[in-house]
Amino acid sequence: MTTTVTSADGTPIAFDTYGAGSPVLLVGGAVNDRTTVAALAVVLAEAGFQCVAVDRRGRGESGDAPVYSVERELDDLSAVIDAVGGATAVFGHSSGAILALEAAARGLPITKLAVYEPPFIVDAQRPRPGEDLADRLSALLADGDRDGAVELFLTEGVAVPPEGVAAMKGQPVWDWFAGYAHTLPYDTTVTGPGAQLPVDRLAAIAVPVLVLSGGAGEAWMGAAARAVAETVPHARYESIPGQDHGVLNAPESLRPVLTDFLR
C-alpha cells in the first residue's frame, strides 16, 4: 500500500508498507527508490516486522523542491516516522546509511539503527572525491548532461574504474541511473565534502547501531564500516559473507542478522 505524507517544506513523500509488527524504515542510497528496497521489505515483513520503503525526495512518487538540503531530507524521514507511529527502527544502505546516521545523530525518534556500507573514505585505499563534486554534478545537470553527471559520480564519487563505467553504458542500468541523475548531488551532499568521517556527529548517536559490510565487497567500504562502528558509542560491526555493495539484490543474506538485531 502506497501512502503519501507532507514534509515540513510541503514536499509530498511516498512510501509503501509491508507486513505488521514493529516498524522498520528502509532508506536506500544513490539512484535507489522504494522499489529497490522492496525485496528486503518483503523478507523482513515475513519475519514479523512492519517495513516501510520510502521514496526519498526527487524519486519515485515523492516530490522535490528547487533547493536541496540534508535538513529537508531529515524532515522527510521525520514526517514518515510520525506517520507510522512516531518511532521506528531504521535500515539504511550506502548514502542512505549516512542519511540514517545523520537522523540518529540529530535526535530523530529512532529506536535502533542498522546501516550497510556507509561510503565514507577513512584510509588511502581509494582517492578522495573533490570537495566540489556536488557543485560539478549540478553544473552538468544544469547543462542537460545527465550521462556526464552519472559518469562523474561513478568514477569520482564511487571509484568505479573507467572500464566498469563503459560496460554499463548501453545497458538498462544506465538508463535507470540517468533517470535519477538529478538526485546525485543530493547523495553527494549527504556524504559530505570529500566523504570525510563525521566523528563528532557519529559520537553523538545514542541508540544501538549495527554496522554491516559485505565480505566480498570493496575493501575501502569495509574499512569505512568498521570505522563507523568504532566511532558510534553503542555500535557493533558484522560482515555479511559473500556479499558486496549490491546486497539489496540478495535480501535473504540480511534476514538473520537484521531480525536478530531489530527484535
Automatic annotation (TrEMBL):
Gene3D superfamilies in alphabetical order: alpha/beta hydrolase
A Pfam entry, by short name: Abhydrolase_6
Example of a GO MF term: hydrolase activity
Keyword Amino-acid biosynthesis found: no
Membrane-crossing segments per the record: none
Tagged with keyword Hydrolase: yes
Entry superkingdom: Bacteria
Species per Swiss-Prot/TrEMBL record: Amycolatopsis carbonis
Name listed for the protein in its UniProt record: Alpha/beta hydrolase
SUPFAM superfamilies documented for this protein: alpha/beta-Hydrolases (SSF53474)
Keywords assigned: Hydrolase
Domain AB hydrolase-1 intervals: 37-252
InterPro entries recorded: AB_hydrolase, AB_hydrolase_1, AB_hydrolase_fold
